[in-house]
From TrEMBL:
Record's cofactor remark: Binds 1 [4Fe-4S] cluster.
The organism's taxonomic lineage, starting at the top: Bacteria, Pseudomonadati, Pseudomonadota, Betaproteobacteria, Burkholderiales
Name of the encoding gene: ispG
Protein name as catalogued: 4-hydroxy-3-methylbut-2-en-1-yl diphosphate synthase (flavodoxin)
Cofactor(s) demanded: [4Fe-4S] cluster
Domain IspG TIM-barrel: start-end pairs: 29-290
EC number from the UniProt entry: 1.17.7.3
Species per Swiss-Prot/TrEMBL record: Rhodoferax lacus
Pathway: Isoprenoid biosynthesis; isopentenyl diphosphate biosynthesis via DXP pathway; isopentenyl diphosphate from 1-deoxy-D-xylulose 5-phosphate: step 5/6
Annotated Gene3D superfamilies: Dihydropteroate synthase-like (3.20.20.20), Sulfite Reductase Hemoprotein, domain 1 (3.30.413.10)
Length: 425
């Protein structure tokens, strides 16, 4: 009889790419070339308001954003950029800043050299750097600034602002085919041609290939998958991945996670951004949390301790179980800016919060530390498992606070404190 083979692990594929480096001071963020996938985000403050923008950048960086993009749309915004950088440096936040340029980037980067130097990377949208003979000249001015100040760039194509001349010429070409293609594949080709063509043009102007990242953002999940699969096949530039205009809340989260999950599993994507529209009053950091969770759930990165929780069912009729899960999750996240420095490796911790005896003890034993709460009709006692062994039983009103303390003690004991931790929360 033939020996059964073990089931293959679902490991993500690997796409070979160049390695781009985005630098500020001694902070080097590697993108591509086998580096871990980088989380980035973008502010939604008015860049002219330097203090407000610096504070939001800080908030995003502390939430885990490893690069932060800010819009640079006016001379006043360009003037504010060096002040934003200065404020961040004073606060000890060395996250690299990316300038987002459209329409007038060639002028801003030329006329405001302090802005050009304070940024670590420029995002250039080839669809709106000018039309006709102005296009190459203005594009060239931005490349000149990147070369001069030794900055990385992203050629960021977006189908909402695709180069209309290029699209029109590709549509014409298509109409001359014996059997013309549908409009969608022509659009896909135009997006990819705009990105790769602009990267080649930048190289011909002196930009090192290894400092160029590409993106081709669209808002449909299947469109994004189709475009990036092909883009990934046709070039070896590192790829910035994101679903543009993903939307709000659940819709935006699910659409981004679905699209990015499929592509990342195929090895496509070296840095990601989740373009979520925040609900009024909602923190901008939510997009960073989601991007980090996508990478963590695929096993590509580990940012925060994971909390395994059952969904609850008819056996969990009180709200204690939901409250404890929420409380532990919030507590672990809130501590991370400090713990990340104080307890190296703490992000690998696995906590389980389970609703009853059915799967509670089993799942808790698989975690580093787990609690199995009493379901409806069970004795009001919650066994706690540490490293697979039942160590204690919590009872009474304060189970949540007591469990939080048990988790804290476990972390302090297991993860050796770094000697002189420079903590900037
Ligand atoms: S562990 Fe218990 S409470 Fe949780 S889903 Fe399973 S049966 Fe329901």
């Amino acid at each position: 009889m033939q020996e059964p083979k073990p089931i293959e692990l679902a490991l993500p594929r690997v796409r070979e790419s160049l390695r781009s480096e985005v630098v500020w001071g001694s902070r080097v963020v590697a993108v591509g070339g086998g580096a871990p996938v980088v989380v980035q985000s973008m502010t939604n403050t008015d860049t002219e308001q330097a203090v407000e923008t610096a504070l939001q950048v800080k908030e995003l960086a502390l939430a885990g954003s490893e690069m932060v993009r800010i819009t640079v749309n006016t001379p006043e915004a360009a003037k504010a950029v060096p002040y934003i950088r200065e404020q961040l440096d004073r606060m000890g936040i060395d996250v690299p800043l990316i300038g987002d340029f459209h329409f007038n980037g060639h002028r801003l980067l030329t006329e405001f050299p302090d802005c050009a130097q304070a940024l670590s990377k420029y995002r250039i949208n080839p669809g709106n750097v000018g039309k006709g003979d102005k296009h190459d000249r203005q594009f060239g001015q931005m490349i000149e600034a990147a070369v001069r100040w030794n900055k990385a760039i992203r050629i960021g194509v977006n189908w909402g602002s695709l180069d209309q001349e290029l699209l029109a010429s590709m549509m014409d070409e298509n109409s001359r085919r014996a059997v013309p293609w549908d409009a969608k594949p022509v659009m896909y080709e135009a997006l990819i041609a705009s990105a790769i063509g602009s990267a080649k043009l930048a190289e011909s102007m002196g930009m090192p290939a290894r400092q160029i990242a590409l993106s081709c953002k669209v808002s449909g999940v299947r469109d994004l998958i189709a475009v990036y699969r092909e883009l990934g096949r046709r070039c070896n530039y590192p790829l910035h991945l994101g679903l543009t205009e993903a939307g709000m809340g659940t819709k935006g989260t699910v659409a981004s996670s679905t699209a990015l999950g499929v592509l990342l599993q195929e090895g496509i994507g070296d840095t990601i951004r989740v373009s979520l529209t925040p609900a009024p009053g909602e923190s901008r950091t939510q997009e960073v949390v989601i991007a980090s969770e996508i990478l963590q759930s695929l096993g590509l990165r580990t940012f925060v301790p994971s909390v395994t929780a059952c969904p609850g069912c008819g056996r969990t009729t009180s709200t204690t179980f939901q409250e404890l899960t929420q409380q532990i999750d919030d507590f672990l996240r809130a501590q991370m800016p400090v713990w990340r420095v104080r307890y190296p490796g703490v992000e690998h911790l696995k906590v389980a919060v389970m609703g009853c005896i059915v799967n509670g003890p089993g799942e808790s034993k698989h975690a580093d530390i787990g609690i199995s709460l009493p379901g409806t009709g069970e004795a009001p006692a919650a066994p706690v498992f540490i490293d697979g062994e039942k160590r204690m039983t919590l009872r009474g009103e304060n189970i949540a606070t007591d469990f939080q303390k048990v988790v804290e003690d476990y972390i302090a004991q297991r993860f050796t404190a770094a000697p002189s931790a420079a903590i900037s929360a």
